[in-house]
User: Fold these one by one.
Assistant:
Number 1:
Amino acid sequence: MNILVVDDSALALLDFKRKIGQVNRSMHIIYCETVDQAIATLNEQSIDLAFVDLQMPEKNGADLIVYMESRDDLKKIPIIIITATGEDSLLKTSLENKVSQYIHKPVLVEDLVKIIDRHAQ
């Protein structure tokens, strides 16, 4: 399973790496700190699941989701939003029908296990 993780925060990525390392599954994880890096990765590799932070400078997670939705070969990839924003965020509400799930930072190992198991093929 190829998993894309997009977050501009080095601290959040480090935390995610540490926690996903505790998930005992066969996975290849690609970490990107910008939307442009994520788009390049999506154009070069097959991705089975994407974890995307919403709030990033310049292009944000919503920009990446809109890009993925515009491509037939990418819009079937399940997207999990990782966010620190509140439940009533307008941006989150506008993306509801485009994403599979939201999880809040800090990400819990138990949540990662459930999500990965649900999307493993």
Number 2:
Amino acid sequence: MSKNIQEFCKSEVVTAAMTMPLPNSGEHFGSPVSIGYYDNDGAEVWVDFEGSRFNLPDEHIKPFIKQLLRAQRLAKEASLRNNS
């Protein structure tokens, strides 16, 4: 199968495909990140990047986002320290 084709089954709904271009250049460093959910009983979200997928059950979404924001804050702080 070609790396440019992502196949999904009927029970998977794609809600976003995000590209992440580099600032000022518009150059992309990888494939889009796909986000979606399973069309079944649970409130489970999935995130896929270049064929690697992880699932986030409902109860883990807020803690996951909290840790992403923490990592972002720490990265900004490190960048400020390194650039001063």
Number 3:
Amino acid sequence: MPTDTNPFRQAVAAQTPRPKAACVSPRLFRQLVAEGDVEDRMGTPGGLHAPIYGLMLPFFDGDVFIACDPRLEDRDLDYQLP
């Protein structure tokens, strides 16, 4: 059964200012990838564009760095925002 991505999307949209990063569970990460909402971009884990580092990192919606954290599933969470 696919994970519902709407609660995550709504939480990101509701935060002011928009978060630079978020932690997501592996199941939510896989669903966001399947829906085409994750793109690899050069940057830093803080969500800042930094091509000099040469790191390809996953970003949600073009500007929110997402880290996949399996420990969230142990706590029955799909995401965590700052």
Number 4:
Amino acid sequence: MVLYRASIEYNPTNMRLLAAAITNTFKYGLKVIYIGICLLLLILGAFIGWQNSTGIMLIAFGCFLIPSVNAMEKSQANRAIKQLNGQILHVSYTFYDDSFKCANAKEENLSPYSSLIRLVDGKGFFYLFPNAGQAYMIDKSALKPPQENQFKEFLAQKTGLQWTIPLSLMTLNLKQLQHNRKNTRLSKKK
């Protein structure tokens, strides 16, 4: 018996959002370390001073690296967009009592809920992670019936996981980080 249906159209915009969600969910620590290194270079350069060529080089290098903090997710998104070859991929999801189906024009896969390792509630989309390098992206506006809270409760019960939120530098706190880790099934690897 079908309990919920949903869908998504993978276009370049959505592929970029998906890559950002994957990176911010499982590779967030690398971003924080990267930004920390950039800030350290800037602070060291300022401490050494503008009059010294080493100080100027450290500041310049720190400034040069900061814009590339999202390079990993941009690269991942660009590879996926290139694979689409200008096409839009329509994916539909069907949620049953014991499993869910993901289907597109070429294939369909039936997966148990236990295959998911993390549930993320993002702005406009749900992300269901089968591993640390992939996610099923569900457009909230395409959910049928349009009962977001009941859908979230249903998946939380079926997976045994609580929903997490995407991390950001502005909202980062240890309590949220601990909650996210606690609600990740660690037995699956990329």
